Amino acid sequence: MFFLSDYAYTLPQELIAAHPAPERDASRLLALNRLSGSMEHRYFRDLPQLLRSGDLLVLNDTRVIPARLQGKKETGGRVEVLILDYVGGCEALEKEGVFRCACLVRASKRPLVGSFLLIGERIRAQVEALEVDGSARLAFYSEDPLPQALLDAGSLPLPPYILRDSEDPKDRGDYQTVYARHAGAVAAPTAGLHFTEGLLRDLADQGVEIRRLTLHVGYGTFAPVRVEDIRTHRMHSERFEISGETAAAICRAKAEGRRVVAVGTTCVRTLEYAGREGRGVTAGKGSCDLFIYPGFDFKIVDAMLTNFHLPETTLMMLVSAFAGYQPIMAAYREAIARRYRFFSYGDAMFIG
User: Fold this and answer.
1) 228-276 pLDDT tens trace
2) How many domains does the chain have?
């Protein structure tokens, strides 16, 4: 369970979902009992049958930004820029008057420090530093208000495994949850993509309490684990915020013996990071770099919704820590045999 190769599995290419289900809640749902290992095959719209009155459902309301920018160097060569820390750029804009953030820059030749990149017709970005991790620090300038100009110029950074000849205009809506509010993510919290407003109303009418937190999913979620002993892996950091109302609701639920159901690995990591001292969840904002792998002691989350994840990723390690390594690997074998759809636009699991 502690070796990277333990989390390898073979997935037929055709099971990688390139588009979402025609209706969000029409995706399939594999329900896994983490105590018995038993499985049920359902649809996501059956979720009210798996939750009960008094459960506390926690959603991540981050909003994916159009962080992929096309441009050119001053010398004319094409470049592609991917904003990695939109929230940090907004903070820099507020403090310094300049939108300055970490980015990935793809070009035939790495741009030089001090050079300018031209994004569209009205945005210029100066390369201020080249980092050892391959990223660059850029300072953006425009005659138009920033960061709105960047949002207008960009496209959604769909995951690299979604192979398409062209971008689908519907992605602008499909790759956001229906409850997305706070802009800052460069990848969607994909377990939440299956919810509809109607399904959320049905759950509330059933007596399920619904609360929100924000964790801005970073591009590091796609970064490969490069060590064989996973215990030596260093997790990327992502910005989060938990309101006082959400923290209080979670503490009440735990005190009353009600289940806390996290929607997605982002919620699991945020809640367990905020509750790591064992005294309930505390409100506030910060950066979460919690790495969850088998042996982790969960203090807050009692059940979770998640998608099917890439092999040899920290997300596979997290769900294996939560449900048990053998039950998760058996569930993945079952999902492949039954032709479930995988990854961001794919089907879901309920682990309870």
Assistant:
1) 999 999 999 999 999 999 999 999 999 999 999 999 999 999 999 999 9
2) 2
Cβ–Cβ contacts within 10 Å for residue 213, how many? 24
- Residues with Cβ within 8 Å of 13's Cβ and at least 6 positions away in sequence, in order, are none
pLDDT band at 165 (very low <50, low <70, confident <90, very high): low
> Could you give the CA distance from residue 340 to residue 320 in angstroms, rounded to a whole number?
19
Q: Are 46 and 170 in contact (CB under 8 A)?
A: no
Domain hosting residue 111, numbered range = 68-153
Q: Which two tokens stand for residue 57?
A: 């459902």
- 47 shares its domain with 119: no
pTM beyond 0.90? yes
Contact 103, 135 (CB under 8 A): yes
- CA separation for the pair 90, 149 (Å, rounded): 13
Regarding whether 192 and 129 lie in a shared domain, the answer is: no
Check: CB of residue 30 under 8 Å from CB of residue 342. no
Q: How many CB atoms lie within 10 A of CB 222?
A: 16
Quick check: 71 and 126 in contact, CB under 8 A? Answer: no
